[in-house]
Design a protein that fits this description.
Length: 292
């Protein structure tokens, strides 16, 4: 039990601040370099080089292709000459960034990412009942409200969307963007039209639906899958105390806290699939975020 009164409030606030700093350090130290490399990898457009062979192939008719079970399972990837450095994957892109820009290049976009985390946490913290923090008791999570949580996710996304766009463009910018000078930084990552009319950032074709699908729908689906496979991870409903005169009492049982091995493995597999989907959609969404 926490201490009551102002001391309990200060203690809870200190714990919350330390937790926030710890999560921010993990996000910037681990997630940011991977996101940086993935964004640059998706934005690395390499056109095909024009050569005599490619010109002759354009005038040649289609040749009959022999297909069997091996060619269907392991399709051969046609290699063509590209203009510019060919980077095969995320790890190779991280090594290239470190070689050309140093470790500092892997952490481009740290300032917008920090703003995203702060804004998101402030929106989520607006639903916290502060009266329980000073009473010395922890309030239960409360009942699940699917529509309210879904609406909160959309509001959070719309609030942090401009900062995510700034983060992506900062990562892909050829120069280092110094956010200690906001006006100069905004001129580097935004076009003159976007500076005059910031609301047009939401009107970039296909960008809002792609990021909305990534940040909201897939997360909601994951919560539904977790509720069905691992209900012990869900928030429990508030249960009123049983009255001695009651013959029937409804509430959580010991079976609810048991975690099934098959359910846990299936949920982890689902999380892996979702992670791959998020990476794919992140690449799709990062291209319109980068000005031509």
């Amino acid at each position: 039990m926490l201490q009551q009164g102002p001391v309990g409030f200060v203690f809870t606030l200190a714990v919350f601040s330390l937790t926030l700093l710890f999560e921010t350090a993990i996000a910037i130290g681990i997630i940011l370099p991977v996101t940086n490399a993935l964004t640059r990898l998706r934005a690395n457009y390499l056109p095909r080089a024009v050569s005599l062979n490619s010109v002759m192939e354009d005038g040649r008719g289609p040749e009959p292709e022999r297909t069997n079970i091996f060619t269907r399972l392991f399709p051969r990837k046609e290699m063509s000459t590209k203009i510019g450095p060919v980077v095969p994957g995320i790890w190779a892109m991280m090594q290239r960034i470190r070689r050309l820009e140093g470790l500092r290049g892997l952490f481009k976009g740290a300032t917008p990412m920090g703003v995203i985390m702060v804004v998101s946490l402030l929106i989520v913290a607006s639903r916290v009942d502060l009266s329980y923090m000073s009473s010395g008791h922890l309030k239960p999570s409360g009942e699940i409200h699917p529509f309210g949580d879904f609406l909160l996710s959309i509001i959070t996304y719309l609030a942090v969307f401009p900062f995510e766009l700034l983060m992506r463009r900062t990562m892909a910018h050829p120069d280092f963007v110094n956010w200690q000078r906001p006006r100069t930084a905004l001129r580097q990552v935004l076009s003159p039209e976007e500076l005059l009319h910031p609301w047009k950032l939401y009107m970039i074709p296909g960008l809002v639906p792609a990021v909305l699908l990534r940040k909201v729908i897939l997360v909601r689906l994951t919560l539904l899958v977790r509720h069905g496979l691992v209900p012990a991870f869900d928030r429990l409903k508030n249960v009123a105390s049983a009255d001695p005169k009651d013959d029937v009492f409804e509430g959580p049982t010991s079976a609810l806290y048991q975690i099934s091995t098959i359910g846990m493995l299936t949920f982890l597999l689902w999380v892996g699939v979702i992670a791959c989907s998020l990476s794919f959609l992140s690449g799709i969404a990062s291209k319109p975020m980068i000005p031509p």
